[in-house]
Amino acid sequence: MQYFSARHSVFYAVIVLTGLFIFLAVEFSPVWLAGALVFGALSVRGIIDLVQTRQAIRRNYPVIGNMRYFFESIRPEMRQYFFESDTEKLPFSRTDRSLVYQRAKKQADKRPFGTQGDVYQTSFEWINHSLEPIEPGNSDFRIQVGGPACTQPYSLSVLNISAMSFGALSGNAVLALNKGAAMGNFAHDSGEGGISRYHLEHGGDLIWNIGSGYFGCRDSEGNFSEERFAERARTTNVKMIEIKLSQGAKPGHGGMLPGAKVTPEIAAARGVPVGIDCNSPPRHSAFTTPIELLEFIARLRELSGGKPVGFKLAIGHPWEWFAIAKAMLKTGITPDFIVVDGAEGGTGAAPVEFVDHVGTPLREALRLVHNTLVGIGLREQVKIGASGKIITAFDMARTLALGADWCNSARGFMFAVGCIQAQTCHTGKCPTGVATQDPRRQKALVVEDKSRRVANFHHNTLDALAELLAAAGLRHPQELRPHHIAKRIASGEIRVLSALFPDLEKGELLTGKFRSSIYRTAWPMAQAESFAPLYSLSAALSGNTATIMAGEGVAGEESRTTDVPG
């Protein structure tokens, strides 16, 4: 009985009507054959929908699913008279989504008749071209990730699949993403849900994301297990290890996967019991201070056999990030990389308040991390990745210009495997089989077809980036600087990003002379021994730090700065 799904009700109806009209034609009049032919044709259409492998909607919704493609075909005309513009972002515009679909399917991605954007609108951005452009070269842009303590550095593409867990994504979606990554020679972040069999089947390079639940490397009590970590980390597929401190979708928020959803496959990937509630705490238990975090990184690097180890974070309290920077100086331990996740990022469902009002947007967060590393003289040792609504080659160019070494995209690759932004990810009723554990729904997502689209989207986006760079007279994304990107900040007023996000000089923070207010205010508050500030922000802003510190029994200015050389 379970086979007779409500999703197929229209298909069942046309079959019944076909039989009814045949009966009427035989018993009463051949006139009824016209109806039999119509509904017979629809029945054949439904059978074709069920067996075809190109379109997930039609496989999940035979007959009626074709209406989506019909309405999509007339959408430009309907939109022109009734609906939104192509550039309206909800949260991704139709223009952005169409571009991904075109590049994933290797269709023409050119646009006639000029831009649809308002180039005089506040916040409009562009890349400044050169009067001495060059020919676009090889678009397989790569960077080497691995600091002085890393013995197995990794050559990483500048565009990779951002963290999305099996469980949030279907098994078929993970298979398609990983196979696409293998075909295109780029990396696939596992997400904090652990490395499932779907991540391993096609041999794509993996960035193992380890969150506070330590899925795949935990003991029976949920604590970090060195033995289980070392066993997984030394496998060939795992190229880098990423400790997730926080994420853009819901920074500072834990999660609970109800036991009813902990299937045998999810339990195997996460290393938890089947059918038991699975908790992801809001904070880590393996470390509690910035120094302990860096010691944990060094230990993971050793246990993995020298592979690159870093962490991912969304910026919140700036003094907490500064505390990690000071811990690098005090211990001499540096991560091999840091991934900065903007507040606009995130594929998973989260409370509305967290989605809209928690965390620092990517551009400001990225610039803070980049400048801090420059200011303490460690930028060359630590690579920076960035994620948060990165879809187009221009999104990449702007992000790389602000200081990133590479970009991660989650929703871009979701679009490539068929996501239509239905925004039902948290319901288990994803119409394309991308974000669901329903075996019948995810069966509609055909791995062989969608994996090619993943590889195509990656390749064609990097080709577009190569063309942008060539127009600016550049050969590699690492040559991009903030002055290459301009932004309209008001009518008749334009700034290059280097004016909006000034550079720090190498080692500048070590001198104790702070040109920027955020460093002047928050850097002295940070301490390597704790994520807690030495005194309150209110005290810093009011200039009463000495009084409040004395009242709280905290040492004076001299002792506060002893952990920063120079």
UniProtKB/TrEMBL annotation:
Annotated InterPro entries: Aldolase_TIM, GltB, Glu_synthdom, YerD
Tagged with keyword Lipid biosynthesis: no
Pfam families recorded: Glu_synthase
Keywords tagged on the record: Membrane, Transmembrane, Transmembrane helix
Gene3D superfamilies the UniProt entry points to: Aldolase class I
Domain Glutamate synthase: 159-474
Segments passing through the bilayer: 9-26
Keyword Magnesium: no
Family: Belongs to the glutamate synthase family.
Name of the protein described by the UniProt record: FMN-binding glutamate synthase family protein
Organism, scientific name: Alcanivorax quisquiliarum
